[in-house]
Specification:
With 242 residues, this protein is mainly beta. It is built from 3 helices and 17 strands.
């Protein structure tokens, strides 16, 4: 009887674990991934459409947040060689974005991080020149050299909402993102400013990612993170309604 009870308990626990993590592939156009609580157990892993052989990269995404941890992470790509092979985060204390390339951090100041508003972010890096640049809400940063000038070529683990300190995870509460993330596209090239502008304004058809495509996304979702419809709500004051 005791063995039977132990077996049933094991099956129930396995079922709970499996129910909290699932892998899907679908078009997420007009959808968001919601990270509703401050916890290291909620995350989303993105599965690329192609093998990683990238002499350059562009990562574009939109986010919406109402609270900040010390260093909320928006995008994290880890490889066996570099746990921060390519990552995007925000420093709440220093009021600046940070991009990490092959574990080398580079900071970008003077770019906006608006609370309770959608923010559009694109980041580019080219291994040939070593030049990195960020674009936030149609404002471009200066270009900075980031070494080593080595192309991306390994087996990646790509995570949204958490900062990977190891190839197998290693999440920390100070880096957790809470809010909405949407329209994630990863390109195997450095997009031009004109191409990035079309992504920012959303009024014209922008270039979809060839490496990660939000309109054809395979992902694994865990914890309380969930896919929802993007809310299209506008509130007006009495004066604006007259």
């Amino acid at each position: 009887m005791q063995r039977l009870a132990s077996y049933v308990f094991f099956i129930v626990c396995c079922g709970l674990v499996l129910s909290q993590t699932k892998t899907e592939q679908q078009c997420l156009r007009e959808k968001v991934i919601t990270f509703p609580e401050l916890t290291t157990s909620s995350w989303v892993k993105l599965h690329p459409n192609e093998s990683m052989d990238m002499p350059a990269v562009t990562v574009c995404l939109r986010f919406y947040a109402d609270q900040l941890t010390a260093n909320p992470c928006l995008f994290s790509l880890a490889t066996p060689s570099h746990p921060q092979d390519f990552s995007l985060s925000w420093s709440a204390d220093l009021k600046q974005y940070q991009m990490s390339i092959h574990n080398t951090p580079v900071q970008f100041k003077g770019l906006t991080f608006n609370l309770n508003q959608w923010n559009s972010v694109c980041a580019t890096w080219d291994a040939n020149s070593g030049l990195a640049q960020m674009f936030v809400n149609e404002v471009a940063s200066i270009r900075r050299v980031v070494d080593p000038k080595v192309a991306f070529n390994d087996a990646p683990v790509i995570t949204l909402g958490q900062h990977q300190t190891r190839y197998d995870g290693g999440f920390q509460l100070t880096n957790v993102f809470t809010g909405f993330i949407s329209d994630v596209h990863v390109h195997k090239q450095a997009l031009s400013p004109r191409q990035i502008k079309t992504y920012m304004v959303q009024k014209t058809k922008y270039k979809l990612g060839d490496y990660i495509n939000w309109h054809n996304l395979k992902y694994t979702i865990a914890g309380s993170a969930q896919v929802e419809e993007k809310q299209q709500v506008t509130f007006y004051t009495k004066e604006e309604q007259i």
